[in-house]
Design goal:
By secondary structure, the chain is of the alpha+beta class. Helix content is 36%, strand content 14%.
Length: 280
């Protein structure tokens, strides 16, 4: 069996399991065969062009080109890519999975001490820990650790060992940056008149606010970026000054925004701009 045939066979097997796949060229990079994408000139960020609009794997390209359609995988348009492919990759978020990419021995040791056991796949320098559940992808969450899920791809390195478990909050929390503390501009928490317990610390009150915020983002039919910013602004205005927001809450909002097509960078910028607008 040739290398190209072997890669295609693996891709079809994964697609049958519901895992979106794509070929990787040398350097573990996706194929870009139009002028805009040659040698990753586009930064490997998919243009989301209509099929056949530019000559790349459609849509163009990277994780967005990953598919479970056997007719696409075996089409003439993909034949040249499989012939040049060095590996098979998959879109974890498209299969509702998250890969914790541990790139060295120290990262692996940290995971074994900190994270719940799950399916483990050996890599060249470390391990992939695969959890059931999708989230936003972030590189460099800790030294030697990347998170690969939505809007990202991971190299297929075999089925691994162990039993896959649900994505834990400890992994979701890694994707949320700690807010910047500005000591020269202290923030005073809102406290009910006459003293007493801050109403924002009510779990039900906060949970309702997060749920409604995520629903607002999900329901946006247009001007998604504007809606995301406005929602972040509202959440921070209501809950950002009393210390009740956690990394898990922020991760849920970011996940909702990315599900509507917002990039990690746009989410982080919208969050930062909202904090700045509120003087936080």
């Amino acid at each position: 069996m040739s290398t190209a045939t072997g890669h295609l066979h693996t891709a079809l097997w994964l697609a049958e399991l519901g895992v979106p796949v794509l070929p990787l060229r040398a350097g573990k990079e996706p194929f870009g065969n139009c002028r805009d994408c040659t040698k990753s000139a586009c930064g490997d960020r998919p243009h989301m062009k209509a099929a056949g609009a530019c000559g790349c794997l459609a849509p163009c390209h990277g994780w967005a080109a990953a598919t479970t359609d056997p007719n696409v995988l075996t089409s003439p348009a993909w034949a040249r890519a499989w012939g040049q492919a060095r590996a098979v990759a998959y879109h974890p978020g498209g299969a509702h999975l998250t890969v914790v990419d541990l790139d060295n021995a120290d990262a692996v040791a940290w995971a074994r001490q900190t994270l719940p056991a799950t399916k483990v796949v050996p890599t060249t320098r470390g391990e992939h820990w695969i959890y059931r559940g999708a989230m936003r992808s972030v590189n460099g969450v800790r030294p030697g650790i990347d998170l690969k899920s939505t809007m990202s791809y991971a190299r297929w390195r075999g089925p691994g060992t162990g039993t896959m478990t649900a994505l834990p909050d400890a992994v979701r929390a890694l994707a949320v940056k700690q807010p910047t503390v500005r000591p020269t501009r202290p923030v005073i928490a809102s406290v009910p008149a006459g003293g007493g317990r801050c109403p924002h610390r009510s779990p039900a009150y906060l949970e309702r606010g997060i749920v409604m915020a995520a629903q607002r983002i999900t329901a946006a039919a247009e001007e998604v970026h504007k809606t995301v910013y406005g929602t972040f602004l509202a959440v921070l205005s209501a809950h950002g000054r009393c210390g009740c927001l956690t990394e898990a809450h922020t991760a849920r909002l970011f996940t909702a925004a990315q599900a509507k097509g917002e990039s990690v960078r746009h989410c982080e910028e919208a969050w930062t701009n909202a904090r700045t607008a509120l003087g936080m």
